[in-house]
Design brief:
Length: 427
């Protein structure tokens, strides 16, 4: 089918609430089975992973279950990776309003992911350690998959029919021109390593510090223009299901997304993860920590994921997922031209003003305002709205946008290059 033919049959946008309502009302659409496997080979011992297949939106209520899978690829030590593994999920969930319905929970999740990543970064930097970590975290609730990432770990979706698409974006300075521009505009310098004689070698890095990534958790010594604000993508699978391959860059430096998916098609998840690691080792050798988690989202009536036939892609991945960002408030979705995936949300901006919405929550019991990042209540005079100026003035609009406490506002300003990058550590 040509691109022209595909575009002519694309249905209109469907609100997320309508999609979920259809799912809840349909007797034929049951919650999928989640099966997973993990494999790893260590070179430096800085990769960590998180597997939690039985989380609950409402504590103790199995009908509200969802699953979480994550990869943490540490550098300059393990502290940031370990800290993120232990604290990130709780920080994300604390940013979701209590007593939310499933629809409200899924709508709030992208913003909660941003708040949770930034809060985890603030808390880790207060420890005074200089290590950092990439994070790719995936939440699966029914047929809805939400992926958030900083750094160059990756989540790949392989659907029935053999169409492979990335749910994440690599934040490598070498490949990401938009991120290079953001870092330099915020006060960082981007360049290659200079060796004796003035020759430049290796990938593009951010100076000071020499990090080749533009986003991570930690990395206090590099500068706060290396931000923890994640790219977030949320999609809804058809009831045919699909496979997720979540892996550190030890895999992706050796294999393309398509090669990794093709290598393990038709195998159960535990064997698939081992084969992806084995294939990466065969292709490149063990040059870095290599960790892979494979997750199968399977219809309950077909408990075994069948082999998927390979098709020529010819840009079908681009048809599946356009690069257009979607406003969370619009609650819109885009129906895949192939019919396997419906895109619900995507946003990758590093600017908190574009990621935290415009509401200004007040705790009705205390009359205090709740910080959109740290989720702590504060009097109005102890913080500012995210969209206000530095001081209240007739020209500023202090009560527009989410409330940020003074500490989180300082973090926002530092990430945007609006104050000197001089991190403070608590003892």
């Amino acid at each position: 089918m040509s691109q022209t033919e595909v575009s002519t049959v694309t249905p209109p946008l469907v609100p997320l609430g309508t999609l979920i309502g259809r799912e809840l009302r349909s007797e034929n659409v049951e919650k999928p089975i989640i099966r997973y496997g993990q494999a790893a080979l260590a070179k430096k011992g800085e990769d960590y992973f998180l597997i939690n297949p039985d989380c609950h939106r409402t504590p103790g209520n199995p009908s509200t279950s969802f699953s979480v899978f994550a990869i943490f690829d540490g550098h300059n030590g393990i502290s940031a990776a370990v800290f993120a593994k232990e604290h990130l999920l709780n920080n994300i969930l604390s940013a979701v309003p209590e007593s939310s319905s499933r629809e409200e929970w899924l709508l709030a999740l992208p913003r909660a992911l941003v708040a949770g990543f930034v809060k985890t970064d603030i808390e880790f930097q207060q420890k005074g350690e200089s290590s950092g970590t990439t994070v790719t975290l995936v939440v699966i609730d029914g047929w809805t998959v939400t992926a958030a990432c900083v750094g160059d770990s990756r989540c790949v979706l392989d659907t029935q029919g053999g169409v492979v698409s990335d749910l994440t974006v690599d934040h490598r300075l070498e490949e990401n021109e938009e991120e290079r521009a953001r870092v330099t505009a915020s006060g960082g310098e981007v360049g290659r390593l200079n060796v004796f004689g003035g020759n430049e070698v290796g990938p593009l890095r951010c100076w000071p510090g020499g990090l080749c990534l533009s986003r991570s958790i930690g990395d206090t010594d590099v500068g706060e223009f290396i931000v923890p604000v994640p790219h977030v993508k949320q999609v809804k699978l058809s009831d045919a299901g699909g496979r997720l391959i979540i892996a550190s860059d030890g895999i992706w430096d050796a294999l393309s997304s398509e090669a990794a998916a093709k290598a393990c098609r038709g195998l159960p998840a535990d064997l698939a993860a081992k084969l992806v690691v084995k294939e990466a080792l065969r292709s490149r050798g063990l040059k870095d920590d290599t960790t892979c988690v494979v997750v199968d989202i399977i219809p309950s009536v077909h408990p075994v994921l069948p082999p998927m036939t390979q098709k020529k892609h010819h840009g079908l991945s681009g048809l599946l997922f356009g690069k257009k960002s979607h406003n969370l408030a619009s609650k819109s979705s885009k129906l895949s031209a192939v019919g396997a995936v419906e895109e619900l949300f995507e946003e990758g901006s590093a600017m908190l003003a574009e990621r935290l919405g415009k509401d200004f929550p007040m705790n009705p019991d205390s009359g205090l305002f709740r910080c959109a990042i740290c989720q702590v209540d504060h009097p109005a005079n102890e913080g500012l709205s995210l969209n206000s100026g530095t001081f209240f003035s007739p020209s500023s609009k202090p009560w527009e946008g989410p409330f940020l406490c003074a500490n989180c506002r300082r973090k926002k300003d530092a990430m945007e290059g609006k104050r000197p990058i001089k991190p403070t550590f608590s003892i």
